[in-house]
Amino acid sequence: MTVRRILTFALLTLCAGLLAGCGSEPPAPGELTVTSDPAGAVIALDGVATSHTTPYTFLDLETGIDYMVSVAIADWNPVEAQMVFLPPAGSADAEFVLSQGTGSLAVDSAPGGAAIRIDGTDTGEITPFTFDELVPGDYEVTVQLDGHVSQPAEIVATVTRDAVASVEFTLVPLPQRIVLLEGFSNVYCVGCPAMNANVDAVLHTEGYGPDRALYLKWPAILSPLDPFYWVTTTITDDRVDWYFGASTINLPTLAGDGGVLGGLGTPASADGMMAFIDSQPEFSEVLVTVNTDEDLGDIDDLTHEATVTLMSPGGVDLSGHHLNVVLVYESVETENEGYIDGVTEYHWVMRDHVVPSSDIGVLDAGTSYPFDITLDDPLGGNLPGHDVYPHAKQIIAWVQHASSRDIIQAGSTVTATAQAAVSAVSNPDTPAVQSGGSR
């Protein structure tokens, strides 16, 4: 082949190539639409996460090639990636269905047996219990057991996929509720011996001891004057006025936790008293304890120092509540047979009343709040001309709302042994039944 022919062939080949490219364009871009159920999954292309979530359409993608498409949602089960071919000047779709992962939640308490609530709904289960197949997320957990307060009050548990979240509560016992009965009576009151006998009968009935019920006698005004009222005139008058807004009331009158039981002058029967006590809550948010290093059996001691301590296992707001403390004679005997019905023995007679706090305020959970108090015994039981012989003294304290008069808890130095030692009935000849009152 001559040189001339070789050059001619090369030129023709080059021209053919140039002619073939004349008038052609690059392939048009394509669209790739990615969807998922549920929506909101993060999209990755060829293993690289994008800033987009489903549903989303990618525009201006190179066509004629394959794309590896995957999606993911936190705490949902992984889903298999898809290889999607994007044809020239075309579009393609990638659709995914995700299944949600689950986790477990173990709830326990000490002691066990507490009802479990999740997000405010009673689950019907008790501790310890493990809830399975829970959707990942936050759950508010509370537990409840009668007679206990939960610490903490609630726990927010975070459940994650394929894991067990555990929460545990400490259940602190609540103190037993102690009901306070207050009697307003007089040694010359016609119906008072029956009320006193009813009270004694109740306090000597099983289940109504000093760990459940206490009694306090306020010597009320009546003519002739009660010897006990004679030495506590101002204290009793203040109490009567605070309760009833008057200086005198029909006697006898009985109050239970701040409210009248029966009527003024017609106190509840023994059965009525027990029914009232039974209707009160079994437990209280507050514990009232009374401690003293002194010998309360020393009748000649005219001044007594004591400490009243308030404690709330779960914390409570006692704003607007008073703390009241009284000194009482657990029993008093007299040789004076001139009193009504010939009664010669009286129980739980008030001798002094102090209010160490007129607005208690907030009690933090588990914190003790002590109040040091001084109680005086007027005349030390010496009532000239009345032949009165008191026995041991006791101290009773209680928490009472200033406006509603509701008493929420009481406490004392009274023991079951001391209460049992007090005779069951003020006068054996007085029946333990309700009687009408008189002024």
Write the layout of secondary structure elements.
Elements: H1 3-21, E1 30-37, E2 42-45, E3 48-53, E4 56-61, E5 65-72, E6 82-86, E7 91-97, E8 103-110, E9 115-118, E10 121-126, E11 129-134, E12 137-144, E13 148-151, E14 155-159, E15 164-173, E16 179-185, H2 192-203, E17 213-219, H3 227-230, H4 233-244, E18 253-256, E19 259-260, E20 262-263, E21 266-267, H5 270-279, E22 287-291, E23 303-311, E24 316-318, E25 321-334, E26 345-357, E27 361-363, E28 368-376, E29 388-390, E30 393-401, E31 407-412, H6 416-421
Helix pairs in contact: 2-5
Describe the protein's architecture and organization:
By secondary structure, the chain is mainly beta. The protein has three domains: 26-97, Immunoglobulin-like (Sandwich), CATH 2.60.40; 103-172, Sandwich (Immunoglobulin-like), CATH 2.60.40.1120; 179-421, Sandwich (Immunoglobulin-like). Helix content is 14%, strand content 44%. The chain contains six helices and 31 strands. It has helices at 3-21, 192-203, 227-230, 233-244, 270-279, 416-421, and strands at 30-37, 42-45, 48-53, 56-61, 65-72, 82-86, 91-97, 103-110, 115-118, 121-126, 129-134, 137-144, 148-151, 155-159, 164-173, 179-185, 213-219, 253-256, 259-260, 262-263, 266-267, 287-291, 303-311, 316-318, 321-334, 345-357, 361-363, 368-376, 388-390, 393-401, 407-412. The strands form nine sheets. Strands 25, 26, 29, 30 and 31 form a five-stranded antiparallel sheet that branches. A four-stranded antiparallel sheet has the order 3-2-5-6, with no helix packed on it. Strand 16, helix 2 (192-203) and strand 17 form a beta-alpha-beta unit. Helix 2 crosses helix 5.
